[in-house]
Hints:
mainly alpha, transmembrane, transmembrane helix, TrgA, membrane
Amino acid sequence: MPATDTMPTAGKLAAAIGLAVLGWIGSEMFRPLMDEGTDFGWFNYANAGIGAICGWRVTGRRLGYGYATGVSAGLTGMVALVFWAVFAQSLNEMLQRTLNGRITGVMNGLIEMFELATEYVMLLPDGPLIGVLLAGGFLVGALAEWVDRRWA
Length: 152
């Protein structure tokens, strides 16, 4: 790993901000797909934070090799954002159910978590949501690559 992979750069910051914004917008678009009366709490904030981390760690590390690689890195960061957001939200819901006494035992909790994750993934195939996520990942990658070249 080159020493510059761990250094803060403008490209990493741009990718982190871009995927945080994409996480927030994606969360807002996902809300109507859930059941009526769902308590979302910190849903948008958590997904924006996950987006920032994925932008910095996943997309930001792959910048500086050209626009095609930058766009690919943006799309990879978007997929990582969706994966970790689904994981975090299903884990959070499983923990809430455990604290309310509806789940007992570690294995039952893990099974419930994977069932919740599957339920959330089944809600994802929504045309506008997929379009925004793909376009956002493409745009974040291209802009982060431009910023990385501009301020490198």
